[in-house]
Amino acid sequence: MAAKHRLADNFIHLGMGATAEPQPAFDGMEWYQDYTQRTAGDGKEGRLVSQHSFTEGWPSWEMHPHGSEVVICTRGAMVLTQEFPDGRIETMTLEAGDYAINPPGVWHIADVETHAEAIFITAGEGTQHRERGASAAASLPPAERQRLADTIRDKSARARHKAATLDR
């Protein structure tokens, strides 16, 4: 019989030949470097299935150049912002049960007002990160930056209200 695991502790690697391999316990950002070495043979066809819990926004943007990433919100709410190669920025609020797809080459970041949990299915080869402030939004005129900030704040407030209504 196969061993039981908790996804939040032991992520899964989906590899070539339709394999699924539990990974060693996640112990911080350096874990990803070891994961890349362990699974290098699967190249850009490998996928990492992980679960994370957040009480604040992500500290940096990320982008996966070789494949899509699926983000499934399982608890709470998060505002996902995507920055496309043409400079277009889109935001969406994900609540429990919602998912979004980050296409290859699209920078993305999430903001969390109180708490959110999500499952990620990631084509991680070549993943890049950049500082939170390093976005196309930083080069927008002040009025446009304010509009974007207002949109994120409004969507987050609506998600909190909806979550509070559902909890009753």
CATH class: Mainly Beta
Q: What is the chain-wise order of helices and strands?
A: EEHEEEEEEEEH
Structural class: alpha+beta
Radius of gyration over C-alpha positions, nearest whole angstrom: 17 Å
CATH topology: Jelly Rolls
Number of domains: 1
The helix tally amounts to 2
Strand content: 35-45%
Q: What does the overall shape look like?
A: globular
Low-pLDDT regions: none
By CATH, the architecture is named Sandwich
- Cα(first) to Cα(last) distance is 41 Å
Binned, the helix content reads: 10-25%
Main sheet summary: 8 strands, antiparallel
Assembly form of the protein: single chain
**Mean of residue pLDDT?**
87
Summarize the SSE layout with pairings.
Blueprint: E1 12-15, E2 19-22, H1 30-38, E3 47-54, E4 60-63, E5 69-83, E6 89-95, E7 99-102, E8 107-111, E9 116-122, E10 128-131, H2 142-167
Antiparallel strand pairs: 1-2, 1-3, 3-9, 4-10, 5-6, 5-7, 5-8, 5-9
Describe this structure in words.
It is built from 2 helices and 10 strands. The protein has a single domain (12-167), classed as Jelly Rolls. 21% of the residues lie in helices and 37% in strands. The model has no long low-confidence stretch (mean pLDDT 87). It is an alpha+beta fold and 168 residues long.
List the defining traits of the structure above:
10 strands; single chain; two-stranded antiparallel sheet; 2 helices; Jelly Rolls; 168 residues; 21% helix; eight-stranded antiparallel sheet; alpha+beta
Q: Would you summarize the structure shown here?
A:
With 168 residues, this protein is an alpha+beta fold.
